[in-house]
Amino acid sequence: MGRGTRHARPIVLVHGGAGARKMTDEQALCLTHSLVLGYALLARGDSALAAVEAAIQLLEGSGLFNAGLGARTQLDGVRRMDASIMEGRRLRAGAVAGIEGIRHPITAARLVLEKSGHVLLAGEPATRFARHFGLAPQARRVADRSDRPRPARGVTRTRQLFRALQAPRGAVRRLRACGTVGAVALDARSTIAAGASTGGIGLMLPGRVGDSPLIGAGVYADNESGGISMTGMGESVIRLGAAKAMAERLAAGRSPDVVARTVLRALVARTGGRAGALVLGRDGRFAIRHVTTRMAAGYWDGEGEPVVRDKFL
Ligand code: ASP
Questions:
Q1: Contact 76/161 with Cβ under 8 angstroms?
Q2: CA spacing 20 to 30 A to 155: which of 49, 170, 266, 297?
Q3: Is 73 a catalytic residue?
Q4: Cα(278) to centroid of ligand 1, in Å?
Q5: pLDDT class for 139, splitting at 50, 70, 90?
Q6: 205, pLDDT greater than 50
Q7: Ligand 1 within 6 A of 97 CB?
Q8: Distance 242 CA to ligand 1 centre (A)
Q9: Does the beta carbon of 212 lie inside 6 Å of ligand 1?
Q10: Which of 127, 180, 198, 292 is catalytic?
Q11: What is the pTM of this model?
């Protein structure tokens, strides 16, 4: 679905991943809170960047999504997370890939943007960078406690890795339990920002990095076109450069709805992948589209009630 009228007032959109699973009531409430928080910041004049970070932080901290506190593990039992954030006035961007033990990877990404002069930090140095700025540690999940069975080792692990490489019907299985989070926002100064944060997909080889920390793949923001936050099969999203492909079409004057449909259709046709997108134009028109069964997402521009659903067809 999308908003067709020109309407450049502050607005925030969030998502909690695309896949097959139904959104729970708790997740719906959490997405609603995230919209309310993001919009409250925009309404008091804060930047789109601040609204996107805060909206995503709330989702990361909930433990209800595959990001931050709720991030899933890679096949060696380690949780490595990816996140990125971008603002469209000066095209500033920051991202982290394979970060560990940090509750808010989106804030680590924003610190990369604000403090490092780089765009992307990866692995252990990214974790150290986040710790240097005193970011809160990620709480351990029950399954991660040392008194619980350790992640698969030896033969079992080799079998799991082999299964991942073979992955029959892998795309479907990997997407079933998605819950990556993302947001895009337009602020009162007409600046757009976008971001995403994830624990990745199912059956990931250790070290796998998805689209979420890759500017132009999972996330893009440009005041001359719009803001995009993707979710779904990262490998497909990367191969298509989906977020940048959408931004280019927005810049050429296409509507967010047409842009989302065109690029998602191409993603299916060219890569066989499945994904969903938040697409926000610089004039405030937007689209939420997915080629998965469901996508948990919502939007709010301060009028009426925030809208949150898990189907936008
Ligand atoms: N795009 C994310 C990744 O591939 C997963 C997702 O959005 O569910 O890491």
A1: no
A2: 170
A3: no
A4: 14
A5: confident
A6: yes
A7: no
A8: 13
A9: yes
A10: 180
A11: 0.90
Residue 151 has pLDDT above 90, yes or no: no
Ligand 1: residue whose CA is nearest its atom 7: 231
* pLDDT of 144 over the 60 cut: no
Cα 281 to Cα 250: distance, rounded to the nearest angstrom:
7
Q: Is 132 helix (H, G, I), strand (E, B) or coil?
A: helix
Strand order in the sheet with 120-122: 120-122, 92-99, 81-87, 192-198, 181-186, 11-19, 294-300, 307-309
The residue type of 64 is L
**Spatial distance between the Cα atoms of 283 and 2, rounded to a whole number of angstroms:** 13
Q: How far apart are CA 93 and CA 175, in angstroms?
A: 27
CA dist., res. 254 & res. 31, Å (int): 28
CA distance 226 to 223: 6
The length of the chain in residues reads 313
Rounded to 10 degrees, the C-alpha dihedral 31/33/36/37 comes to -110
Element at 268 (helix H, strand E):
helix 256-271
Distance CA 291, CA 170 (A): 17
Query: How far is CA 180 from each of CA 4, 47, 173, 197, 225, rounded to the nearest angstrom?
Result: 27, 23, 15, 6, 24
Q: Is 98 in the pocket of ligand 1 (CB under 6 A)?
A: no
What digits encode the pLDDT tens for the residues 10-46? 999 999 999 999 999 999 999 999 999 999 999 999 9
174 CA → ligand 1 middle, Å: 9
Report the nearest atom of ligand 1 relative to the CA of 175: 8
Would the CB of 194 count as within 6 Å of ligand 1? no
| DSSP string covering 4-31 | -S---S-EEEEEEEEESSPPPHHHHHHH
Whole-number pLDDT of residue 7: 47
Helix 256-271 to helix 242-251 angle (10° resolution) is 140
The residue assigned the tokens 């999940």 is: 141
Atom of ligand 1 nearest to the CA of 276: 7
